[in-house]
Amino acid sequence: MFNDKVFKMLKFVCSLVLVLSFLNSFGQGDPYYINSFRFSQSQVHGSARSLGFAGAQTALGADLGALSSNPAGLGFYRKSEFSFAPNFSVVKTNSETQGFSIPDNKIVLNVNNLGIAFCHLRDDIVESKWRGGTFAIGLTRTTNFQNTTTYKGVTNNSLADYVRDIANNPNQPYLWRNYNKNNVNGLVDLAYGAYLFSPVYDPRNTDSLSNSVYRTLQPPVNQYGETQYGKQETINESGGTNEWSAGYGGNYNNKLFFGASLSYVRLRYDRTNSYHEYALNNLDVSNITTDITLNETLKVRGSGINLTIGANYVFNDIIRVGASVKTPTYMSIKETYNANMSANYANLNRDFDGQPGSGDKSSNTSINKYSLTSPLTLSGGVALFAGKRGFLTADIEYLDYTSSFIGGKDKTLYINSNQLTKSYYQSVINYRIGAEVRADIMRFRLGYALYSSPWNSEIKDTDRRVRSSDMNVLTLGLGVRTEEFFFDLAIGHTFYDSDYVPYINNPSDNLQVKTSNVLNNITIGGGFFF
Questions:
Q1: In degrees rounded to 5, what are phi and psi of residue 190?
Q2: Residue 242: what are its φ and ψ, rounded to 5°?
Q3: DSSP one-letter code for 327
Q4: Position 90 pLDDT exceeds 90
Q5: Measured between alpha carbons, how far is 371 from 228 in angstroms, rounded to an integer?
């Protein structure tokens, strides 16, 4: 008896958590705990020069990439500079589930870095330990969201089952008659408007019609006790995060360099989901759903601000060290969501709640505004120089993703997501290492970066559509540098895995989608000194 009660209680708690989590997801955009990582994550960024050695520039300088990483590096400038670096990317994915393997790709063109630095140094003949400094303004693309994923598979449950279970949940604060076909404000309203489920008398339930459960028009079971549904979906994502920064780096006695930058952050994230489901058997009976289509569009726009401060110290001609602190980004976010659902039915009995031969319904435009506070970022680096022949450089970066926080006017809406953020995520240490070899005006570069998985290793089988593994980045670079101008080329190869569950109905029969993600990019930078 006791064990049975405990089991029922655990089942209730798990069901409630899943419903609360996915009411914020399928049919409403993503769960907010996923957005807290997506919009806070760290990626390799910087100028075309620094991308050649995987962005490991905390201990380096004289580069506009320092605006976003360690503004103390601005103090190393000897001349003023203008630079511009467009980026060409090819995103490739391969999604696998139940033996199906589907590749996909997209091509993207962005501006990776743009800026100008105004250097004001004192002449060497001036006897002063204060050597001056450099003021710079620029644009840095810090995060890319570009991705396209397609999958297909077969399960024994339907999206209609998932929606029906939400509607039948006794803990929901509304009854069936509150669902409105003409004022659609969520996934359940959308499914109700498309006749995916309806309140009808269930002969297995002795209650009156007003107390009856929701039922779907799904095909009956086959001779093996199950009905199968084919499913496929294409998810297209675009956008990124840009930082517009203004900063200053000072030079004291050519030994101590310090700086600060203030950044205005702009976020753009767009996603379209095209989901299609179709019954694979028992289509020769009446009143059944033969196929379901759900199209969703999510647009996210945000703006915020952060501050970065840092310092570098030159021990001698061989060793330099650097450190920087980037405050959390305080961001205001607005997301706009629209959806359309349609369903077709075979051999229809039109007495079923006025059911038509097909159902088609569009949602009202849903607008939600909330705030996001990203983690604090701590970075340290060291660089070893071999005279004018080149250098080795390495960075270490610390972030605590459990400290991400989402808020809004009604803070109760985000309690669950913030709790999941603290439970699901962990603090991480990221590594970057690179080298540059110099031969006259030529520069040859290579680098490697490891961005650790943000997930708590004890958390299993959850939705990790942003990234479920470590992210590895390999880079190569080539540069030409003269007294008047410079040219840089960087080639990057990024790879990681992600997991996706379209919706959770029966945990033993969920469609688990595993996707390998590869980003190949070319950044071409150029500029001149003045």
A1: -65, -45
A2: -115, 145
A3: P
A4: yes
A5: 42
